[in-house]
Amino acid sequence: MLGLPDEQNENSDTITNNNSHNINIDGQFTAEKSFDHVFFPTAYEDRTSSLLFRQICSYVQNKCLPSKKCGISYIKLLFPFLSWLKAYKLTWLPNDIVCGITVAIMQIPQGMGYALLANLPAITGLYVSFFSSLIYALFGTSRHLSMGAIAVISLMTGNVVNRLTVKETLTTMVPSLLNKSTIESASNGAIIDPSYAITIATTLAFTVGIVQLLLSIFHLGFVTSFLSDTFVSGYTCGTAILVFTSQVPDIFGLSLKRYVGPFNVIYTYIEIFSNLKKTNIITLLVSACSIIALVLAKEYLDPFYKKKIKKFKLFKNVQIPIPMELIIIIIGTIVSYLLDLNGNYKVKIVNTIGRGFRKPQGPSVTLMPTLMKDAVIIAIVTFAICMSLAKTYAKKFKYMVNSNQELTAYGACNIIGSFFASFPSAASLSRTSVYVNAGGRTQMASLVACSFLLIIILRIGSLFESLPKACLASIIVVALKGLLLQMKDFYTIGRVTKLEAVVWLMTFLSTVILDVDYGLFVGIIVSLFVVILRQFRPRTTILGQYDRSNAYKKARRFSNAFEIPHVKIFRFESAIIYFNADFFRESLLDSIGIDLKTGQQRKNNPQESNDMCLSFRSITHIIIDCSSINQIDYSGGKIFIQALKELNGCQYKVYLCQLRYYNYDVLQKLQMDKECSVIVTATLHDAVHDIQDDLRENHNNKKSQF
Fold this sequence. Notes:
transmembrane helix; eight-stranded mixed β-sheet; mainly alpha; elongated; about 60% helix; transmembrane; Transcription Regulator spoIIAA
């Protein structure tokens, strides 16, 4: 019962209970006018700066000048695969082989589809899947992440490719707001040069990798702490809407202008509805069949199939999904090739895929300054998504992941992959989930997947050239189900806290309407604004004695927590710093009925009850519970002391209880003892005990006078 929470904000109104309540206290107490008489401090010296200097020197010595003794440990830290490889058991191999093949089967259609989403040739998606999985297996610390192309990063890459390959045009919707920032592609039939598009994407990947390596070197992984779960949910749900929108033309077989920048989604849907009459019926039929097959397989056949397959001992603890995506691209390719859908019905197909790897090619140095802003955004979003997944499964399977080493791994995936026509990569939620359910134990499964992908790239990839783009678009749209269902988070979050729901909604709307990069900035700004708002107007609480015990709870919250006669116990639920110090003073003075303008006790106010006014006039002692005040800065300390002086001026006796030593140091340096009269107590109960003695003494003195 003593741990009941003090929920709900309070405007520091006084609640007068009709029930009589006398102070009932037992036990020893400590009350002194000097903090040093309450506690006996040691010769404490704040040596934060010298300790920080020693830590920096130690870091430089260990990292930059490693000794021979720590050389082996440093190599193991840089190449985490050595640790799990040393402890690898042969009994894990069958699970990893099955898992690797299963994940590789998913990566084929997803890689090709996300490459088209990024406005790149389909084969580049397979390059991303191959190189990112291989490199992460060597450098990553998570045993279960499946690296490769994902929808969010592919969309952001596609926006960059669009922006740098089409000319800017002045929009007509809101010219003053957009200021030529919305970009439309050329008319129907215009083709982006694939070589230049690949150069842009690979340079972007290289720049993203450099940013991630710098974040790792300077241990700046904490920047993702500013990306709350609420923000990530709203942001990824918003990008899912944009990804869905980008696939609608391929589903209907429309050739439309493509827009990048603020309000691009509005322009796109205007373009779609204007051209619906030009829908290619055969393409729409292919899309409908693909989507229906995928939904039926995932929602109905897959659960039934997994239930039946568990009867076999080999698959008892392994869940292998039906590879419906691969089945669709195989059937779609065969049907398209046999019926010549492109030639006879103008169904858009993947066209040239090619075979084998491209010659290694470095990034375009001249493009890097232009891409820096996008690279920073993609690097942060990638790290937030990947670390969220890595920590989730590390906690589930009870092992540790190193955030800085993870940044190194992501950077290596992007830098090395950029030389082989790869665009930025990240961990996929759907593939990682399949990775775990298929029984994957280590990154050995990723190496198996790489072997399978290598065969596809070298020998089989070119066979998919007749694949209709509608099949890949359908696969992407169905894969977005999990992200789109995050819309339910808005309702769930709103039931818990309205401010967090505002963060979700603002992030979602800004991402959908303004585009992904603006959505990121707006979401972060709104998230920080909510944090500041909570500190700017924190909770204030009037406490009462709880069931005649030494526990004190919120008087308005609990019917058996009574305010003590002649005593006001005030608690401020935040640090007192420059931007909320005035609110602390106003809340404190208002709680005991002091007029903020005159500094004197308020006279009868029509808005206040007679009982409340009498309660204000009967108060003689003020207790400020400092247990929730974890910091007082210079400006906050001055206003804190000013409030105490105003209370002394109104003849109130003031107590400070549970004051932290560093806050006391601040107040003492501001000469609190000289400026005002306060009594410091160790606990709230001690303050009440001292007031009991004081009131009893005053009562006896009045009796003796009569």
